């Protein structure tokens, strides 16, 4: 299909042709033509956020809960610079986004025009790719290519910078089928040698473990299904990164829980003691490995990843396999079955894992008088686990407790800022998730400090009647900062408490939402039910123990088998060489 | 924090990697990167090097295929073997990059650099400069009664050696192109 239209109309037409139904954005002078085109149609819904950062996080929530790319629209200058945090967040967590930014007209670029910024220069290192479109005739093709780049290979955010004159000018529109094919075509299938090598290593392993990550989720629901089949068929234990939760069900019998800095004891010990590690779509992040010299010292390592730059970046592996997780798992299963479904996993390995499980690393001292944050999440889990539920989080202690105490049975149900650790992510992300799944329960597990970073989005939630539940574990502290200051900085709590907090119940009411406060463990269940039963946005101010620390914990610069457990003495836990690490 | 006696600086690419990288051998590699000749492509490649803390010893870039809109970037870089591998993977995944060739490991290759040297002097020094230029097969491309501009093509080492000789003879200005390189033999 080719026809004449303005650049602004092309944006809308291309979005329709790409199957986009929702755009998150905020208007401004340099994108007015596109907003005008959006006004004159009904296929694409525009969600007006209250800050451009939130537009990107909402698009991320939309993308992660649907598997489709998220789309955002911002104006030039401050609109684009406000988007930078969200773009970086999406880059580090490999979330497909297509972001449009307005730009001053081409003839004004470089003159320091009003609301001009070098958006392409600023966003170059925080996007997978970006384009400045100077010719309306090239616009449609660029948009289609942008969707291709954002969603193929390792997904990521892309940005298209649209000068205002390009939006006004007429040009020829081409549909996705007629657009030029990009040379960017990442390899999906692994070689048959690689598949055979994987299978041979699986067959020989006595103490194997699957270590899976966000790549399984990104590969699509079929990849999670294949993973489940492979785990059940081989009987191997499985752990996952923060990003990969839900690919294998938390109720599955081979599930060891999340691994890493605040991961479960059994998961980290099994990683340390295994003889074969099968990394599927994870990237040996520093939160996972701990001290690298002592990372799983006696294992052979397989790494399946679609991004060649992830392989041997941090940890040298014995068998690197380049390809899409879903394709590789399918081939591995086929070959493994055809060779007679052999495994050498020992009973002793599972017995060892069971003794680690008996440590019950998530134990904490509960209280009758004050709500422990872990208890709050256990009750939230108990009361919502059978519901059609999506969870987002902010960043900090509450995020780690949510990962430890909430169980995920399916992929795309858990949205959290893993790589960048962006406080303020969860609330707008929950709105994006809710708009993609209007009938589902969407809860943002938050800390009060993170939540305040994007609290203006109450306006968005109210305007679009997104009944998101903001479950705030309020300890009046920057809990994770406070924990590190206790461990590392002689209990000097420099700027890590929140003074002058708002009354969250009144804040909710000021926006026309519902506010609930709970401070007594005895009232907690009723209060949570009240939140769940309310048809509309709720701010739940859960006043929790102020000095609780998040355990277990691998202290900075330590190895997997040197975890600190709950109630442990933390004095001198971090050595000088670990102190420099984040 | 000084009481903690933390070592300053790091050559590692993971904050959690406390290995002593100084102990590992630093290698010099010449990479040929074929890219779409589009606005900003050089900034993407160079920005990746600065952003991830890699070294650039020399860099040349020019369009090599006008019809195909392709440019060739030749980068000489240094690092441990792991870092070199990582550089190639990182450069290779930039969207407008078509191909990354490591000429240092992909069989024999030819590397050439072009340099211009302005040498100012009179008398014996001037004669000696001209004599050495002949030995090095440098061409005189500009001359006054008190100066020469020599043009020379060769490996970086040869150009370094010539520059060292010219310095006491009145070298006042140098311009170098950086390395251009191709693999030897008939294959591409």
Can you give me a brief rundown of this structure?
The complex is a heterodimer of chains A (582) and B (188). Chain A is α/β, with parallel strands linked by helices and 582 residues long.
**Shape annotation of chain B:** elongated
- What strand line-up does the widest sheet of chain A have? 3-2-4-5-7-6
Q: Of all protein chain pairs, which has the greatest interface, and how many residues does each chain bring to it?
A: A-B, 33 and 30 residues
CATH homologous superfamily classification of the largest domain in chain B: ACT domain
The total strand number of chain A stands at 20
Strand content of chain A: 15-25%
Which radius of gyration of chain A do the C-alpha atoms yield? Answer: 24 Å
Question: CATH homologous superfamily of the largest domain in chain A - what is it?
Answer: Thiamin diphosphate (ThDP)-binding fold, Pyr/PP domains
- Name the CATH class of the largest domain in chain B: Alpha Beta
Protein name (chain B): Acetolactate synthase small subunit
Family (chain B): Belongs to the acetolactate synthase small subunit family.
Catalytic activity (chain B): 2 pyruvate + H(+) = (2S)-2-acetolactate + CO2
GO molecular function, one term (chain B): acetolactate synthase activity
Defining key terms:
heterodimer, A: 582 residues, alpha/beta, Rossmann fold, six-stranded parallel β-sheet, B: 188 residues, Alpha-Beta Plaits, five-stranded antiparallel β-sheet, four-stranded antiparallel β-sheet, 4 helices, elongated, disordered N terminus
Characterization of this structure:
The complex is a heterodimer of chains A (582) and B (188). With 582 residues, chain A is an alpha/beta fold. Chain A folds into 3 domains: 2-174, Thiamin diphosphate (ThDP)-binding fold, Pyr/PP domains (Rossmann fold, 3-Layer(aba) Sandwich), CATH 3.40.50.970; 192-357, 3-Layer(aba) Sandwich (Rossmann fold), CATH 3.40.50; 373-543, Thiamin diphosphate (ThDP)-binding fold, Pyr/PP domains (Rossmann fold, 3-Layer(aba) Sandwich), CATH 3.40.50. Chain A contains 24 helices and 20 strands. In chain A, the strands form 4 sheets. Chain A has a 6-stranded parallel beta sheet with strand order 3-2-4-5-7-6. In chain A, strands 11-10-9-12-13-14 form a 6-stranded parallel beta sheet, with helices on both faces. Chain A has a 6-stranded parallel beta sheet with strand order 16-15-17-18-20-19, sandwiched between helices. In chain A, helix 9 crosses helix 14 and helix 16 (373-384) packs across helix 23 (524-533). The longest helix of chain A is centred in the first third of the chain and has 16 residues, at 136-151. The mean pLDDT of chain A is 96. By secondary structure, chain B is of the alpha+beta class. Chain B folds into 2 domains: 24-102, ACT domain (Alpha-Beta Plaits), CATH 3.30.70.260; 109-183, ACT-like. Chain A, domain 2 (Alpha-Beta Plaits), CATH 3.30.70. Helix content of chain B is 25%, strand content 37%. In chain B, strands 5, 6, 7, 8 and 9 form a 5-stranded antiparallel beta sheet that branches. A 4-stranded antiparallel beta sheet of chain B has the order 2-3-1-4. In chain B, strand 2 (58-65) and strand 3 form a beta hairpin. The model of chain B is unreliable at 1-12 (pLDDT under 50). Chain B: Pathway: Amino-acid biosynthesis; L-valine biosynthesis; L-valine from pyruvate: step 1/4; Amino-acid biosynthesis; L-isoleucine biosynthesis; L-isoleucine from 2-oxobutanoate: step 1/4. Chain B: It is an enzyme of class 2 (transferase).
């Amino acid at each position: 299909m080719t026809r004449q239209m303005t650049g602004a109309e092309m944006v809308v037409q291309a979005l329709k042709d790409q199957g986009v139904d929702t755009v998150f954005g905020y208007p401004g002078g340099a994108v007015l033509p596109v907003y005008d085109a959006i006004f004159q149609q009904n296929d694409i819904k525009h969600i007006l956020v209250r800050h451009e950062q939130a537009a990107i996080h909402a698009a991320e929530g939309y993308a992660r809960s649907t598997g489709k790319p998220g789309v955002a629209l911002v104006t030039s200058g401050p609109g684009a610079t406000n988007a930078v945090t969200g773009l970086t967040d999406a880059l580090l967590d490999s979330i497909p986004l297509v972001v449009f930014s307005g730009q001053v007209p081409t003839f004004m670029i470089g003159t320091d025009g009003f609301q001009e910024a070098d958006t392409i220069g600023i966003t170059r290192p925080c996007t997978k790719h970006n384009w400045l479109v100077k010719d309306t005739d090239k616009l449609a093709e660029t948009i289609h290519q942008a969707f291709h780049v954002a969603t193929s290979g390792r997904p990521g955010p892309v940005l298209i910078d649209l000068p205002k004159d390009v939006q006004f000018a007429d040009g020829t529109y081409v549909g996705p089928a007629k657009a030029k094919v990009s040379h960017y075509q990442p390899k999906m299938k692994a070689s048959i040698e690689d598949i055979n090598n994987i299978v041979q290593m699986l067959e020989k392993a006595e103490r194997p473990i699957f270590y899976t990550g966000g790549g399984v989720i990104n590969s699509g629901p079929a990849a999670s299904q294949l993973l489940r089949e492979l785990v059940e068929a081989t009987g191997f234990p499985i752990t996952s990164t923060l990003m990969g939760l839900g690919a294998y069900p938390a109720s599955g019998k081979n599930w060891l829980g999340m691994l890493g800095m605040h991961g479960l004891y059994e998961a980290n010990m099994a990683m340390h003691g295994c003889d074969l590690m099968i990394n599927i779509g994870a990237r040996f992040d520093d939160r996972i490995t701990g001290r690298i010299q002592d990372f799983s010292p006696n294992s052979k390592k397989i790494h399946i990843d679609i991004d060649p730059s992830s392989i041997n970046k941090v940890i040298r592996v014995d068998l690197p396999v380049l390809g899409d997780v879903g394709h590789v798992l399918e081939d591995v299963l086929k070959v493994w079955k055809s060779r007679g479904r052999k495994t050498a996993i020992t009973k002793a390995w599972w017995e060892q894992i069971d003794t680690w499980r008996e440590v019950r690393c998530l134990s904490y001292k509960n209280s009758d008088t004050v709500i422990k944050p872990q208890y709050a999440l256990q009750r939230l889990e108990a009361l919502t686990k059978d519901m059609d539920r999506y969870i987002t989080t902010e960043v900090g202690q509450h995020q780690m407790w949510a990962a430890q105490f909430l169980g995920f049975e399916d992929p795309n149900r858990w949205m959290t800022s893993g790589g960048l650790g962006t406080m303020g992510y969860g609330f707008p992300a929950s709105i994006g998730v809710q708009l993609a799944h209007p009938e589902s329960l969407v809860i943002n597990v938050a800390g009060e400090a993170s939540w305040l970073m994007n609290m203006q989005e109450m306006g968005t939630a109210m305007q679009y009647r997104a009944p998101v539940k903001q479950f705030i574990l309020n300890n009046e502290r920057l809990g994770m900062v406070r924990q590190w200051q206790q461990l590392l900085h002689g209990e000097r709590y420099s700027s890590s408490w929140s003074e002058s907090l708002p009354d969250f119940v009144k804040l909710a009411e000021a926006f026309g939402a519902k506010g609930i406060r709970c401070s007594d463990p005895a009232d907690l269940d009723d209060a949570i039910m009240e939140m769940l039963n309310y048809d509309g946005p709720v701010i739940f101010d859960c006043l929790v123990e102020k000095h609780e620390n998040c355990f277990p914990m691998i202290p900075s610069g330590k190895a997997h088998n040197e975890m600190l457990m709950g109630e442990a003495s933390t004095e001198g836990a971090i050595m000088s060489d670990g102190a420099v690490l984040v | 924090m000084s009481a903690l006696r933390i070592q300053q600086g790091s050559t590692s690419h993971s904050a959690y990697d406390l290995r002593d990288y100084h102990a590992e051998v630093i290698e010099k590699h010449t990479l040929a990167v074929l890219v779409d000749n589009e606005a900003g492509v050089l900034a993407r490649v160079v920005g990746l090097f600065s952003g991830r803390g890699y070294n650039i010893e020399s860099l040349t870039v020019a369009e090599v295929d006008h019809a195909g809109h392709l440019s060739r970037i030749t980068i000489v870089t240094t690092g441990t073997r792991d870092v070199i591998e990582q550089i190639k993977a990182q450069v290779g995944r930039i969207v407008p990059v078509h191909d990354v060739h490591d000429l240092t490991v992909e069989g024999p290759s030819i590397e050439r650099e072009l340099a211009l040297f302005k040498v100012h002097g009179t008398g014996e020094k001037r004669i000696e400069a001209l004599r050495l230029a002949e030995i090095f097969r440098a061409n005189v491309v500009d001359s006054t009664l008190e100066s020469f501009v020599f043009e020379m093509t060769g490996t970086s080492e040869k150009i370094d050696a010539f520059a060292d000789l010219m310095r006491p003879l009145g070298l006042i200005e140098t311009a170098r192109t950086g390395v251009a390189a191709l693999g030897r033999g008939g294959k591409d």
